[in-house]
Amino acid sequence: MNDTKSTTREAEPPMGMMLLDPTSEIAPSGRSRAVRMASLEGLTVGLLDISKPRGNVFLDRLEDHLGRRGATVLRYAKPTFTKPAPADLRHEIASQCDAVIEALAD
Amino acid sequence: MTVDPGRIDELRARFSDSGLSSRRVEVGALEDEAEAMFDRGWTDGLPVVAPTKARVARMLDGTTRSPGDIVTLVPPSLVECTIEKVAVNAVMAGCRPEYLPVVLAALETICTDEFNMHGVLATTMGVGPVFVVNGPITQQIGMNAGINVLGHGNRANLTIGRAVQLVIRNVGGGQPGGIDRATHGSPAKLSFCFAEDEGGSPWTTLAEDRGFDRSTNVVTAFCGEAPRILVDQKSRSADSLLRSLASGLLSAVSPRTVLAMDGLLVISPEHMARFRDAGWDRARFMDELGAYLMVESDEILVGAGGIEEGLPESMGGLTLPKFRPGGLLVVHAGGPAGLFSAIVGGWLNGPMGSDPTSREITP
């Protein structure tokens, strides 16, 4: 992940686009959450280390637990915890995993 | 225009009281707005144009009506739909502002007891509203009545029909798999809208036939399935072509149905030439055609020919017309070359189903 250059280019946080709701506004505008997994058996779970210290310790333990429950684990890491995950990394996780767990803490 | 709003629209959106009351939905800075709209279920399966305030404000320039005015109650949820909500969906469909009056009239036409959009949406049969537009507006806004008239390539035709359907989906809540449970669906559920070729026709227009003046802008809604081609490349006389078209029309929806379903016949210019050469007007054509559209009920009774579908025994011994009086709409449209016409089969007609419905298009 050698894209530090590209992510530092944006001096200010980019603004989100504001849309007008095309619906009757009966339902909440937020997207519904993904359906919860009934079981971990046979699933691929991504563990995303945001590159804070000792995140790997937490994720190592999770990997043990998930493995015992039948999940295949793939490990990922953000280049830096100060910036959002690069689009390529998000795409990689989304296309390779059924679920993802992100380790936030020190 | 809708994908690249002018600077003035951006300034108006930022600094003027636009009167737009739709809920604001912010797309995250890292989200792709097209993907975000797919995720929210706002699309018909194709990408939509992001409905920003500037684009919606510009769309509303296409009508003299106020954003807050109620257009109609939109099925299936029977929600009050404002001009603004129609404009939002028209932006998403890709309309230009000058199309908006047609979209509004088309929507008003189908949200009626006569047309019964609720039933048209909810039926398992693959039908949808088919819009035929008549009047000077078709040329003013660049609608297509010629080559590929029922197909692709024309922005006005496609986006007007699409905008109406997006309103049904987004405002009315008519989502496929929800209230819309069509077995096969139909391209008519995406967009099916075209103009009649009035200038090239020797006949009165569909709108005139339905009681409107030729100078009036009119949209007619017909509940129909996808178009089917009727091939006749050899008839050189009006009578031969008439018999040929009639034999195709008899099988519309099913050869076993009579009177229960209407039809929409789209005659191409080269087919129309046969009737023009014979000096037939619309009334003569309909009279002559009617004689070939009579069916002996005994041939289509339940069990006749080993087929269990059919009319009840009690209807034996009758000679019945395929279409009820006024149940076959005829329009002239299509490219200049090609000895084909097209039939759009209907759905249940009358109070049980849907009646063809026309409405004047106003600014």
- The sequence of SSEs of chain B as H and E is HEHHEEHHHEHHEHEEHEHHEEEEE
Residue-averaged pLDDT of chain A, rounded? 82
Could you say which structural class the secondary elements and strand pairing of chain A correspond to?
A: alpha/beta
User: Termini separation of chain B (Å)?
Assistant: 20 Å
The number of distinct helices of chain A, counting runs of at least 4 residues, comes to 3
Ranges of chain A where pLDDT stays below 50 over 5 or more residues in a row are 1-10
User: Would you identify the regions of chain B where 5 or more consecutive residues have pLDDT less than 50?
Assistant: none
Q: Supply the helix-strand structural class of chain B.
A: alpha+beta
How many beta-strand elements of chain A?
A: 4
Largest sheet of chain A: 3 strands, parallel
The value of Rg of chain A in angstroms is 17 Å
Give the oligomeric state.
heterodimer
Q: How much of the polypeptide of chain B forms β-strand, as a percent range?
A: 15-25%
Question: Order of strands in the sheet with the most strands of chain A?
Answer: 3-2-4
Which descriptor suits the 3D outline of chain A?
globular
The chain pair forming the largest interface, with residue counts per chain, is: A-B, 18 and 35 residues
Order of helices and strands of chain A: HEEHEHE
Which radius of gyration of chain B do the C-alpha atoms yield? 22 Å
* Relative helix content of chain A: 25-40%
Strand content of chain A: 15-25%
Total E-strand runs of chain B: 13
